[in-house]
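About this split. The held-out portion is used to measure sequence recovery: a designer receives only the structure tokens and must propose an amino acid at every position. Recovery is the fraction of positions where the proposal matches the reference. Here is one held-out target exactly as it appears in the evaluation file.
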């Protein structure tokens, strides 16, 4: 095994991104989230803002998009096709980037249905991070300097569009399904640093002697 990939799905305010960044620092491997729209833009030539706008969101009603699922194709559209900048094609381009990353380097990928996209790969550990609403409220109010009422709205809205996005692009699976992940962590009970330690231990258990030393400096880049 040349590389390992950790995917992290997270409830808003649970600290999943922070856990991913700390894990990346501990392992000496990169953590990707906001970087993927930029990479997808460079890869396709499509304005990065379109990827950011579509990132883990669905435009229009969920039911409408679910109906449109019948037309969904896993192939990337030709640049001359009018659907080249459609939501589905933007997703497919990012999915292609994620698969390339998983093939080429050890890394951590936050969100973006990565656990589903890489579900059949032996070199992947998938993690879901959640916390109680009280813990998430505390985190969001502190990070964004908003009232508890506003934080509650932010959590509800963000978790809903992540769930809808995940259901749409996975063909109906639900985002918090524990069987879609190797491990589920409650960051509120464990603490974020302990979550990092646990993931490292699980990596050792899952991959054992196959756990590779990071080789990112010699890995080729996504083109």
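Reference sequence for scoring:
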């Amino acid at each position: 095994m040349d590389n390992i990939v950790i995917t992290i799905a997270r409830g808003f305010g649970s600290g999943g991104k922070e856990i991913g960044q700390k894990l990346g620092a501990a392992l000496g491997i990169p953590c990707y989230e906001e970087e993927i729209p930029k990479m997808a833009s460079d890869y396709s030539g499509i304005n990065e803002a379109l990827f950011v706008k579509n990132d883990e969101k669905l435009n229009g009603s969920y039911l409408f998009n679910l109906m449109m699922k019948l037309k969904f194709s896993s192939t990337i559209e030709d640049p001359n096709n009018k659907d080249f900048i459609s939501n589905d094609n933007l997703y497919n381009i990012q999915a292609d980037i994620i698969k390339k990353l998983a093939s080429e380097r050890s890394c951590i990928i936050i969100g973006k249905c990565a656990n589903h996209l890489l579900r059949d790969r032996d070199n992947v550990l998938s993690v879901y991070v959640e916390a109680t609403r009280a813990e998430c409220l505390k985190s969001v109010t502190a990070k964004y300097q908003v009232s508890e009422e506003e934080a509650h709205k932010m959590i509800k809205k963000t978790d809903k569009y992540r769930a809808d996005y995940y259901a749409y692009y996975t063909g109906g699976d639900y985002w918090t399904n524990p069987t879609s992940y190797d491990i589920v962590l409650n960051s509120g009970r464990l603490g974020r640093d302990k979550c990092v330690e646990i993931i490292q231990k699980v990596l050792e258990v899952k991959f054992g002697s196959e756990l590779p030393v990071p080789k990112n400096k010699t890995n080729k880049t996504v083109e």
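Annotator remark: The mean pLDDT is 81.
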